[in-house]
Design goal:
- It is a single chain.
- With about 220 residues, this protein is α/β, with parallel strands linked by helices.
- A 5-stranded parallel sheet has the order 2-3-1-4-8, sandwiched between helices. A 3-stranded antiparallel sheet has the order 6-5-7.
- The longest helix is centred in the C-terminal third of the chain and has 17 residues, at about 205-220.
- It has a domain at about 5-120 and about 185-220: Rossmann fold, CATH 3.40.50.300.
- The protein has helices at about 15-30, 35-45, 50-55, 65-75, 95-105, 120-130, 170-185, 185-190, 205-220, and strands at about 5-10, 30-35, 85-90, 110-120, 130-135, 140, 160, 195-200.
- Helix 1 packs across helix 9 and helix 6 (about 120-130) packs across helix 7 (about 170-185).
- The structure holds BIS(adenosine)-5'-pentaphosphate (AP5).
- The site of BIS(adenosine)-5'-pentaphosphate has 38 residues, from helix 1, helix 2, helix 3, helix 6 and strand 6.
- BIS(adenosine)-5'-pentaphosphate binds near residues 14, 142, 205 and 208.
């Protein structure tokens, strides 16, 4: 039986998880699973889950663990995750990390690596204020650091670019505070398991990609 591969991307809001996930998922042929993107799809479709999640997302708080864990479990059990997945935004609490460990035993897989993209707080606000996200598939751009060829239009699929409601300065500050209290402790959780790899997220997008791909490539060669 093939062991499934799971990679967990850690980092504060705006560190570049989604940006790098697009690159790594393609190179490693892993499904990119973004918990935030799944919540936004539900909100767009006005499902009960989407309406519930919005109450927390609008405040910059985390959606309750039980709801989030059930949603991710359902997503990871689908056939397109048969080889594993690249997790972006999950887990975000110790309970979610422990639940993930349990799920992966059932799915005959394991977390192989946890790249942690480190970016100091003062840079995060500027990153999120200038971010533009594609309406159809969530491709990410930035006014200054990764501008689309045509303003307001996604280079990848031609769909409209929009600014997320939770990227307002006040909500960003709240998201960063929530990250520091609830998610940052996962650095120690994965460090203790020997899975953490810290990347300097202040480098250019291409430099961060190169560093991540070289580390993950070396891991594959040794597996
Ligand atoms: P989510 O959508 O996961 O947001 P996040 O973690 O806050 O992360 P972001 O998407 O804001 O940032 P990112 O690190 O992906 O950065 P990006 O690549 O876009 O979650 C949203 C909400 O959903 C949460 O607040 C919560 O309510 C809920 N939620 C989600 N998961 C949950 C969970 N597990 N449990 C409970 N609740 C959950 O980059 C940012 C910008 O910077 C872009 O414009 C990009 O172009 C630019 N950029 C990227 N890299 C660089 C670089 N190296 N140099 C310069 N610019 C760069």
């Amino acid at each position: 039986m093939i062991m499934r591969t799971y990679i967990v991307l850690l980092g504060p809001p705006g560190a570049g998880k989604g940006t790098q996930a697009e690159v790594i998922a393609e190179k490693m042929a892993l499904q990119h699973i973004s918990s935030g993107a799944i919540f936004r799809e539900h909100l767009h479709d006005q499902t009960e889950l989407g309406k519930l999640a919005a109450q927390y997302m609008d405040r910059g708080e985390l959606v309750p663990d039980d709801v989030t864990i059930a949603m991710i479990r359902d997503r990871l059990e689908r056939p397109d995750c048969a080889l594993g997945a690249l997790l972006d935004g999950f887990p975000r609490t110790r309970s979610q990390a422990e639940a993930l460990d349990g799920m992966l035993v059932e799915l005959h897989g394991a977390v192989k690596a946890v790249p942690y993209i480190y970016v100091p707080e003062e840079i995060l606000v500027e990153r999120l204020a200038g971010r533009w996200t594609c309406r159809s598939q969530g491709h990410v751009f930035h006014d200054k650091y990764h501008p689309p060829k045509q303003p307001g239009i996604c280079d990848e699929d031609g769909s409209e670019l929009y600014q997320r409601d939770d990227d307002k300065a006040e909500t960003v500050m709240r998201r960063i505070r929530v990250y520091l209290v609830q998610t940052k402790p996962l650095i120690a959780y994965y460090q203790e398991q020997g899975l953490l790899f810290q990347v300097d997220g202040t480098l250019s997008i291409d430099q961060v990609s190169a560093s991540l791909l070289s580390y993950l490539g070396a891991l594959e060669d040794h597996s």
